[in-house]
Amino acid sequence: MIDVAVTGAGGHMGREVIEAAADRDGVDVALAVNRTSVGPVAGVPVEDEADLPALLAERDPDVLVDFTLPDPSTRYVEACADAGVAAVVGTTGFSESQLAVLADAAESVPVLRAANFARGVAALRRAVREAVAAVPSYDVELTETHHNRKRDAPSGTALTLLDDVDEVREERDSSPDADRVHGREGEQPREDGEIGVHARRAGDVTGEHELLLAGNHEVLTLTHRAESRGVFAAGALDAAEWLVGRQAGEYDFEDAL
Ligand SMILES: NC(=O)C1=CN([C@@H]2O[C@H](COP(=O)(O)OP(=O)(O)OC[C@H]3O[C@@H](n4cnc5c(N)ncnc54)[C@H](OP(=O)(O)O)[C@@H]3O)[C@@H](O)[C@H]2O)C=CC1
Ligand SMILES: O=C(O)C1=N[C@H](C(=O)O)C[C@H](O)C1
């Protein structure tokens, strides 16, 4: 049995995680916090996030699962490092300096961060790397679609897929994202090697990512569509179960699969 702490417990993903944990053997939610006051979620009382450091010391959970925003997320992971609690981070949109804070925390505790906890996206990443390696000269365009509440663009998953493309094309070292063109407008002919990146926001779309490769009179598209947030919550809990007992360090969802 592992004891999990959930931050952002009143948010869409925090609620999904608590509900998924309630249905899963071997996982108990020992602590749930939120910024604003909300009632119990799946019978778990939700406490004030300002008290997180004291609550971590008192309840001593094995692992914290966070889906919030970059600012609170970095604070929560720092609190985990102080309390000796592992952290699974699903939040996206971190700046380089916030990522450095997470890396510091990972010197004390295991920290697993992933922009997407859907197993299908893990498979998509492998397929993308393979496809780009097979047709390296083809044009690449990436389109992601999300609900109209989403704050960060492009999505964390889109950025991960772009890094995967760059890794195969071995362009990371020189200038990681110089090849990315975000939308196009006016006179803007496509340049060799550029990757068009398109972020759509509409309605309540859970999350879709499509990588298009085209050249030589053919088009290949690789698409993932999440049909429920439950897939992300299930993956995050799989990651949490895997992470407990690991050495301090930074991990990715692929490590846990
Ligand atoms: N890795 C993955 O698989 C997935 C990642 N995500 C990512 O998870 C994150 C959350 O998504 P989602 O649940 O849809 O978002 P919601 O807007 O539904 O929830 C956000 C949560 O963060 C809290 N929050 C917002 N601002 C602050 C603050 N300043 N201090 C403390 N807490 C704050 C909110 O609290 P309050 O209720 O008080 O506003 C709420 O609990 C996003 O970064 C998203 O991209 C989403 C799905 C899957
Ligand atoms: O904000 C969301 O909802 C999602 N965010 C993640 C991202 O930024 O990639 C993952 C998923 O697509 C849903």
UniProtKB/TrEMBL annotation:
Transmembrane segments: none annotated. Pfam families: DapB_C, DapB_N. GO terms for molecular function: 4-hydroxy-tetrahydrodipicolinate reductase; NAD binding; NADP binding; oxidoreductase activity, acting on CH or CH2 groups, NAD or NADP as acceptor. It is an enzyme of class 1 (oxidoreductase). Residues 145-194 are annotated as: Disordered. The keyword Kinase does not apply. CDD domains: DHDPR_N (cd02274). Residues 2-117 form the Dihydrodipicolinate reductase N-terminal domain. PROSITE patterns: DAPB. Keywords: Amino-acid biosynthesis, Cytoplasm, Diaminopimelate biosynthesis, Lysine biosynthesis, NAD, NADP, Oxidoreductase. Its EC number is 1.17.1.8. InterPro entries: DapB_C, DapB_N, DapB_N_CS, DHDPR_bac, NAD(P)-bd_dom_sf. Pathway: Amino-acid biosynthesis; L-lysine biosynthesis via DAP pathway; (S)-tetrahydrodipicolinate from L-aspartate: step 4/4. SUPFAM superfamilies: Glyceraldehyde-3-phosphate dehydrogenase-like, C-terminal domain (SSF55347), NAD(P)-binding Rossmann-fold domains (SSF51735). The active site is at 146 (proton donor/acceptor), 150 (proton donor). Residues 120-257 form the Dihydrodipicolinate reductase C-terminal domain. GO terms for cellular component: cytoplasm. NAD(+) binds at residues 8-13, 90-92, 114-117. NADP(+) binds at residue 35. NCBIfam families: dapB. Homotetramer. Catalyzes the conversion of 4-hydroxy-tetrahydrodipicolinate (HTPA) to tetrahydrodipicolinate. This is 4-hydroxy-tetrahydrodipicolinate reductase. It comes from Haloplanus rallus. The gene is dapB.
